[in-house]
Design a protein that fits this description.
10 helices, globular, binds 1,6-di-O-phosphono-beta-D-fructofuranose
C-alpha cells in the first residue's frame, strides 16, 4: 500500500483495501440511527462498510469479527477474574523483561485462537511473544497482518482497575504464503485499521479505519457490541494532563518544565491543569479521547525511548487520535505515525491527545 493510499478517506481506502479499484461509496451519515429498536451492532456497522464497497471480499469484515469475538471472550474472563484462577503472575518474564500475568497469557491465547484459522491474516505479532506468530500449518494465509497488546495495563489487573486490549491491522507487504517480520515492520501511516477494547465499568470497543472513530458498548446479555459513540472527536484543548509523576526525577529538564508549567498559572488558559493517571494506557487514552487533554509517557534518563511499544501500543492509539482530530508525537517533533519501525518490540516516547495540548508540550519541551 503506497503512502498516498494511506491518506485516502475511508470510502476510497476501503475500496483500495479490497480490490484496488476506486469508487465513491457512502457510509451512514453521522448520527443516522438504524431507525429501529436494534441500533447499530458492530457486525452491522462493519458489514455496511463492506456491502457498500464494490468487489469487497469480506476479508476485513471476517478479521474484525474474529477480533470482536476474542474481545467478548476476554471480557467474560476479566469480569469474573476474581472467581477463576486468572489473577496473579505466572512467574514468567516476557521479552520486555516484565512479569507476565496469567490474564496476559490467557488473553494472548484467546486472540491467537480466534484469528489464526480464519484465513484473513498471514502473520501476527503480540507483546507477549518474542517472535512473530505464524499461522499454523494447514491454514490459509490472508492479506492482513494483526499486531496486538492482548492485555494492556497488566499492573492493574489484580486491583480491578480498567484494563484493555489494543490492536493494529496492516496489509501484508510480502506477496503470498507465510508472513514475515517485514510484514510487521510498517509505519503507522500504513495501518488499515486500529482499535482497542476497554474492560471497565462497561466493555467498549473503539475502532477507526482512518476516517471516523466509533465506539461500541458490549451488551453482556445479548453478547453483542452496539454503536454508542459515533464519530468521536477529541476536543482541541482541555486542561487535563496524564503522566506518571513518580518518574519525575528521571525526566529531562524540558519535560519537567512542561509539567511544572501545566501545574501553574502559566498553563494555557491561566489556571493549573488537573491530573488524571490510571496507569493503563487504554483507560488514560479513552478518557483523553472523550474529554480531551494530553497523556504522556516520555523518554527519560533511565529509558530514553520510554516504556510504550510502537507497533501495538503507540501507533494504533496515534491512528485513532489523528482520526479523531487529535495528535500524537514523540515529544520531539516527530509524528508517531511517521516513525519507521526497526524492531518488533521497540519502544517510543508518547505524547498524545488534544491537538493544541500536544503542540504546547512540544513547544515547551523544545525550550529545554
Ligand atoms: P502493558 O501493561 O501492556 O505492559 O502496558 C504498559 C502499561 O501498563 C500501560 O498500559 C501504561 O500506560 C503504563 O504501562 C504504565 O506504566 P507505569 O506503571 O510505569 O506508569
Amino acid at each position: 500500500m503506497g503512502d498516498s493510499e494511506a491518506q485516502l478517506p475511508l470510502a476510497q481506502l476501503a475500496v483500495s483495501i479490497d480490490n484496488g479499484a476506486m469508487a465513491n461509496v457512502s457510509i451512514p451519515p453521522p448520527g443516522a440511527s438504524s431507525g429501529d429498536e436494534l441500533g447499530w451492532t458492530l457486525d452491522r456497522h462493519i458489514l455496511e462498510r463492506q456491502r457498500r464497497v464494490q468487489g469487497a471480499t469480506g476479508d476485513f469484515t471476517g478479521l474484525f469479527q474474529s477480533i470482536a469475538l476474542a474481545a467478548r471472550v476476554i471480557a467474560s474472563k476479566v469480569q469474573k477474574a476474581g472467581l477463576a484462577d486468572v489473577l496473579g503472575a505466572t512467574g514468567a518474564t516476557n521479552v520486555q523483561g516484565e512479569t507476565v500475568q496469567k490474564l496476559d497469557v490467557l488473553a494472548n491465547r484467546i486472540l491467537i485462537r480466534c484469528v489464526e484459522a480464519g484465513g484473513h491474516v498471514c502473520v501476527m505479532a503480540s507483546e507477549e511473544n518474542d517472535e512473530i506468530i505464524p499461522i499454523p500449518a494447514g491454514y490459509p494465509h490472508g492479506k492482513y497482518v494483526l499486531m496486538f497488546d492482548p492485555l494492556d495495563g497488566s499492573s492493574n489487573i489484580d486491583v480491578n482497575i480498567s484494563i484493555g486490549t489494543i490492536f493494529s491491522i496492516h496489509r501484508r507487504r510480502t506477496a503470498s504464503g507465510p508472513g514475515t517480520v517485514e510484514d510487521c515492520l510498517q509505519r503507522g501511516t500504513e495501518q488499515v485499521a486500529a482499535g482497542y477494547v476497554i474492560y471497565g465499568s462497561s466493555t467498549m470497543l473503539v475502532y477507526t479505519t482512518g476516517d471516523g472513530v466509533h465506539g461500541f458498548t458490549l451488551d453482556p446479555l445479548v453478547g453483542e457490541f452496539f454503536l454508542s459513540h459515533e464519530n468521536l472527536q477529541i476536543p482541541a484543548t482541555s486542561p487535563t494532563y496524564s503522566i506518571n509523576e513518580g518518574n519525575r526525577s528521571r525526566w529531562t529538564p524540558g519535560v519537567a518544565r512542561w509539567v511544572d508549567t501545566l501545574k501553574s498559572n502559566d498553563a494555557p488558559g491561566g489556571k493549573p491543569y488537573g491530573l488524571r493517571y490510571v496507569g493503563t494506557l487504554v483507560a488514560d487514552f479513552h478518557r483523553t479521547l472523550l474529554r480531551g487533554g494530553v497523556f504522556a509517557y516520555p523518554g527519560d534518563k533511565k529509558a530514553p525511548e520510554g516504556k510504550l511499544r510502537l507497533l501495538y501500543e503507540a501507533a494504533p492509539m496515534a491512528f485513532i487520535a489523528e482520526a479523531a482530530g487529535g495528535a500524537a508525537t514523540n515529544g520531539a517533533g516527530t509524528r508517531i505515525l511517521d516513525i519507521e519501525p526497526g524492531q518488533l518490540h521497540q519502544r517510543v516516547p508518547l505524547f498524545i491527545g488534544s491537538r493544541d495540548e500536544v503542540r504546547f508540550a512540544e513547544e515547551t519541551i523544545a525550550k529545554g
